[in-house]
Amino acid sequence: MRIAFFGSGEFGLPTLFALKESHHKIALVVTAPPKPSGRGRRLTTTPVADAALELGLETLAPEDPNSQEFLQQFQNYAPQCGVVIDYGYILKEPLLKIPQHGFINLHPSLLPRYRGAAPIPRQIMDGCTKTGLTVFALDTGVDTGDILNQIEIPIQPDETCGELKTRLGQIGARLVVKTLNQIETGSVKRQEQNHALASKAPKLTKSDRVIVWNKPAQEIHNLIRALSPEPGAITSFRGRQLTVLRSRVLNEHINSDPGTIITEKSGVMVATAHGLLELLQIKPAGGKVLSGADFRNGYRPSPGERLGDNQ
Question: Quick one: which H or E segment has residue 81?
């Protein structure tokens, strides 16, 4: 089939490469326009745009994929099916009706649970021990279309969002190609979502990132790995923001105020409402990522000093 691939972020890259290796033909890649990035605010292209260039694929980067101007361009490529992964724009009719087989989307959750912009971090944050991948037929709702294929996948106890996203992207590539093959042969089965079981995974806000030390160690650990490597869970020390990127729950409890650094122990051990949490990777504002041992040696916390006092 002639495929139009819509994507921007790294999550869709394994599928783009898998489609290139398949018997399907990528007629067009559609991605977000370049945006200012970094200290110099230089225009930066998306990971998908870079990959498409490497693969020699024709690419468009419209400001509005639902505009009349883009619709006219898109029709000229005569795609038979659209694949949307981590694109960043909501597609509407009449665009959705142009390919004869419509659009399909790869979503990193067991739909109808965790519909929305941030399904992977929200699942880790909630302490989920399993997730999944769903390929569904795109409609005008947000992640509400019929399910075409779905698989369940365990989440490892210390797995970060970045690690899980990479793993899901690779597995999802095979699921998308399988679904396209089924669409092509007419063997794909559609199943309506049970909308009564739906839950939401809204976009992350800055307040979501703040570590509240007066919570159990496991809950704080889930937050840290849900936000690693980007944007990172934050706390403060001596008035300076710290981003915590990796941690470990210790099966111990010390009777100290939550947030207190336990200086009697090596590394950076922090008291919580229930249990101790070891901070393994810490990035002070404006500095580089430090191990817990390097942070301890460099900052030399005093007995009784606490994290998060200035939040």
Answer: strand 81-85
